[in-house]
Amino acid sequence: MKNKFENRICSYCEVEFLPKRSNQKFCTSACRTAYHNKRNNAKRKELAKFFKPIEKQYYALLGLLNGKKEVTVHKEYLRGIGVNFSLFTHIHFNEKINKNCYALHTVHYYKVDKEHYKICTND
What we know:
Layout: E1 8-9, E2 16-17, H1 29-65, E3 70-74, H2 75-80, E4 90-94, E5 99-104, E6 107-111, E7 116-121
Antiparallel strand pairs: 1-2, 3-7, 4-5, 5-6, 6-7
């Protein structure tokens, strides 16, 4: 049976090949996988610039809770462990205190007074 498709150039390795399907862009599945891995790794590296600092701060706050529902901590201690008060994933409204809190996933914090912050968990 004669192939009805014309030769193409592989989108990854740039080798000429005879496609088996009308929408085939890669000469082999290995080239297809390598192409998508390269593309997705570049996206992951770009997003890591934003998510790594947030993740680091989340685990720092979670570590302070140490299984408790809430804990009050001095702001200088928080700065000392690397907490950046401008990093948060969303604003959480705490109905108990009738206040907006800055949140990182399941952990939120708010200012108690001039020097202290209360860290709480949504769980």
